[in-house]
Specification:
homodimer; 396 residues; alpha/beta; Aspartate Aminotransferase, domain 1; Aspartate Aminotransferase, domain 2; 2 domains; eight-stranded mixed β-sheet; four-stranded antiparallel β-sheet; 12 helices; 14% strand; globular; Class-I_PLP-dep_aminotransf (chains A, B); transferase (chains A, B); aminotransferase (chains A, B); 2-aminoadipate transaminase (chains A, B)
Chain lengths: 396, 396
């Protein structure tokens, strides 16, 4: 049935397509498939036992509030906890700069809702997070992709894009262990990016879900650290350092921008789960939050090592891949004559899965990359999966 | 700072205003104010003690999944539980018809995102839920308001609106104990509404947050019960029958429509809190869900009685108000010469709060109504608050 206008759905829905990754998940959830596809953290690292005690404490001491409606900006002690952690990184910030979201995916979607008119330009890395493309797409932006090298977005290319697109709405970047490439933006470029954003009068959306999951090397300050004009909007989340199922993330920005996000939330879904917000703070009070993150880091580091070692051994030498210093992903580059989709089809037959690279390019057209997640599977499965994948690659 | 286009924010933000109710909340949260303003359920009815056991069970038996990412459509046993409860109302429905949302507010927002192009007509009751207006506004609809009487939306007026607006996108209705009026749509009109929607080829969004909170009188089937063509989208929630802080609601619709909602969720916030979804199902397994709802009904019924009795005694006789058979609200009509905002200002001085009626009319212009919530305060406070309010009204 359609009404007399001929189309039941809003035309933005033409730009809302199934998430490639989420659809793939359905295939890869068979128990005998070794999946390097999803961005799911390792479940054995969730503090389920501790969370029993956390929930009990929250409900016993604060049950009536934990189950009730709460403020759209978020639970005040959680805002303070996050502001404290960000201050520790040298950022000048208070609870008033923090807005709690249902994961940083919601931060992405609200950012587009706040900023993007149909046809507005969004400048992003090439490639970029497929979920950001999915969050932005309903607001019908145009994407201008900026090439990257091993130090992240290339600043000369960014400036060219800014000059060519004077009305661009924001620069979207994932500076730490980028999804999908695993590449980290250098400190120098972070500073330069803020300078360029200031010069060309454009907001920066800094998406840092993996920033705290660094295995080695010098800790770099967030892009927000260099921001003196209030032009960087930082998106954070507890999904990779704690528990994604709780859906707790945040936006850190100037209070006048935060107020706009709050208005969006009042209309969209009122607030984040009151109990979940208290669970995060109470876990941090009862246990050692950084100690928990360090456990995740240790585990993912071993898994990264296992995967990269296995790739060195099992992959043909004409296959290149990145060496991430943190996060969840490595990015594989195939020789021009091998197509990622052909590898994918044969890999699925061999019961190993990953995400072909094309969907990470908002304007499409890539055929020769794929993304591997080393965080979800244990070392044994990683070695077995990479061995299977190596065999597939050798046949092509 | 604005970029060179002159405006930092998307133009939809001109239509995103502070929620009157949420802003009022700030005043009314002072402990000595008796507030009949918010739509907040009575917190002493939350099963906090039981929830301790529920959380423990979920985390012990299913911790790795309860803290992990999950399916965008929702946790399968919760979808089945909801489908079962709706089937008990005579609706032909399975889990495939159910999509889990972060409260029914999110169902409203997604419905607009799915259906509304700028300038599209939304047909609604006059007055209607202020939060629905807030959810729809960013998508820049036009509102056509249909007058109500004591049996709900007047069908002749609805048909007139449908004829005058052949491209209208959907009819939005709250048939049960409507917010703000407390009015319930008659069974005959529910059937007629579905007939008219079918005849004019338009979807119906049936919003029923209070449907299960009936104090007395015959239970009426949801509008969805009469729907044989799959044109009714039903929005439900556990916020009024269980715990709003968990943010768990649902959409019930045809599977092809459900798939579109799922696509929106994949881009917007991935999924609802995995732990919260399990908490609802596990509570229902461990305890008597309907028994819990009956406790809420008993409590709210006493409070409604206390409020209506006090209003009969304390209000001047030229003040009219509705006699709701369920839900949380009564709707007060003032004589033309008394303005709700004047009453509000004097009431705040007398430390009693409510929501002036104007914001419930999407096209504005009302001066002579206000909404009272009888569910949050206990009988003693209700009587004291209504007495204060009666004094204010007598001075005007």
């Amino acid at each position: 049935m359609t009404n007399s206008s001929g189309s039941r759905y809003a035309y933005r829905m033409y730009n809302v397509k199934p998430s490639a990754i989420r659809e793939l998940m359905k295939v890869t959830r068979q128990p005998d498939v070794i999946s390097f596809a999803g961005g799911w953290p390792a479940p054995e690292l969730f503090p389920a036992k501790e969370m029993e005690k956390v929930c009990q404490k929250v409900l016993k001491e604060d049950g009536a509030y934990a189950l009730q409606y709460g403020a759209s900006e978020g639970y005040q002690p959680l805002r303070e906890f996050i502001a404290g952690r960000m201050s520790d990184k040298g950022i000048d910030i208070t609870a008033d700069n923090i807005f709690i979201t249902s994961g940083s995916q919601q931060g992405l979607e609200y950012s587009a809702k706040l900023l993007v008119n149909e046809g507005d330009v969004v400048i992003c890395e090439s490639p970029t997070y497929v979920g950001a493309i999915g969050a932005f797409n309903p607001y019908l932006p145009k994407y201008v992709e900026v090439p990257m090298d091993e130090k992240g977005m290339i600043m000369e290319e960014l400036e060219k894009a800014l000059i060519e697109n004077p009305k661009a709405k924001f620069i979207y970047t994932i500076p730490d262990f980028q999804n999908p490439t695993g590449v980290t933006m250098s400190g120098e470029r972070r500073k330069k990016l803020v300078e360029l954003a200031g010069k060309y009068g454009i907001l920066v959306i800094e998406d840092s879900p993996y920033g705290d999951v660094r295995f080695e090397g010098e800790k770099l300050p967030p892009i927000k650290y260099y921001d003196k004009e209030g032009i960087v909007v930082y998106l954070g989340t507890f999904s990779k350092t704690f528990c994604p199922g709780l859906r707790v993330g945040w936006v850190a920005a100037e209070p006048d921008i935060i107020r706009k996000y709050v208005l969006i939330k009042q209309g969209a879904d009122l607030q984040v789960n009151s109990l979940a917000q208290r669970e995060v703070v109470t876990f941090a009070k009862m246990y050692d939050f950084d100690g928990h993150v360090n456990k995740i880091i240790d585990s993912y580091k071993s898994r990264r090592d296992a995967m990269l070692d296995a790739m060195e051994k099992e992959f043909p030498t004409n296959i290149k891949f990145t060496h991430p210093k943190g996060g969840l992903f490595t990015w594989v580059e195939l020789p021009k004559h091998i197509k990622a989709m052909d590898v994918f089809e044969k890999a699925i037959e061999a019961k190993v899965a990953f995400v072909p690279g094309d969907s990470f390019f908002p304007n499409g057209g890539d055929k020769n990359h794929f993304r591997l997640n080393y965080a979800t599977m244990n070392e044994e499965k990683i070695i077995e999966g990479i061995t299977r994948l190596g065999k597939v690659l050798k046949t092509l």
